[in-house]
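FW: tagging you since you asked about this chain on Friday. Here's the raw sequence from the shared folder, copied in full. Didn't touch anything.
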Amino acid sequence: MPKTSGRLLTLLSLLQTRRDWPGTLLAERLGVSLRTVRRDVDRLRELGYPIAAAKGPDGGYRLGAGTELPPLLFDDEQAVALTVALQIAATGLGDGTGEAAARALATVRQVMPSRLRHRVDALQVTAVERPARPAAPIDGDALVAISSAVRAHEILRFDYGSGTGDEPPRRVEPHHVVTWDGRWYLVAWDLDRSDWRTFRADRIALRIPNGPRFTPRELPGGDVATFVTGRFRGADDGTIGWPCQGTVLLDLPAATVARYSRDGIVEELGPDCCRLTLGSWSWPGLAAAFARFDTEIEVVGPAELVDAFDLLARRLTRTAAGPTSGGRS
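HL: got it, structure written out here
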C-alpha cells in the first residue's frame, strides 16, 4: 500500500482526469479499501478541494469548483506546458495580463522539482513585435466582460473608436473573441448594419448593462478561423481565399522563392526557374508582390494580372520621372 501522502496525490490526480468516479473503482485503482478512500477524500476536503459525494450502493465522487483556488496537481508534461504558456503570456499579448502571467510563472517555477525546473529554464521565450505594429493595450476586465457576453449570448452595447459618446451605441450579437497579428478582435453580427463585423477590442468602450439574450447565427465560412482569415484578406463571401489570385514564372530557384512566400504555392521547374501562385486583396497589390522578387517575370494568368502590371509600370514610370509642373494626373 502506498504511503498516505503519495496515495492522496494519486487520488487527486484520478479525480482530475474524469468527471465522476465510483468509490469502488477508486479503491481498486488505489489498492485500498472503500473505507480508506472515504478517509482520503475527507483529507483532501480539509486541504480545500471541493469533492462532492454521490449517493448509491458504492457511492461516487466528483471534483468540483470551489470559491477559493486550492493547490493544484500537474504531471510533468502538464507542468512544462503550463510554464511555456505562461512564458509566452508574460511577454505581453496586449491584454493587460503580462504582469500577472510573470508572477504566476515565478510561483509555478518555485514549487517545481529540480528536474522540471532545469527543463523549463532551458527554454527562454522572447516575443519580438513588428516595429510598425505594436500590440494595442487591452483592459483585462473589459476583455473578460466581452468574452462573458459571447458565452452568455447577450447583446453588447458599446461606443467604438474615438466617438464622443453622444452617438447611439453600436449594438451587436457577439460571436467570438479572437487574436490576429498581435491584436484582440470581437467578431459579431452588427444589428444596425445587418452584417458581420470585426471590432478591435481596444477601441470598444462598453455600455452597461448588456442587452437581451439572442440565438447565435451561423458564421459565414462555417468556422471563425475561416471567417476571420477571409475578412483580413479582403473576402466578403465567407471564404478563406484571396479576392485576387495569379500565377507567374520567376527566374529564381524554388528554394529561394519559398523562403519569402509564406502564403504562396511554389513549383520547381528547373534549377533556376519556378512557378509561383500568390493571392492579394487587389490586382495592383498582387503585381507588386510578384515584383519584389527582383527578377524576370512571365505572367501565366489571369489577364487581370497582366493589366495590373501595366498599371503598376505606368505608375512607377511617372514616379521615376519626378514631380511635374502639372501636378498629378
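FW: Residues 303-321 form the longest helix (19 residues).
HL: agreed, and The chain has eleven helices and twelve strands.
FW: great, closing this out.
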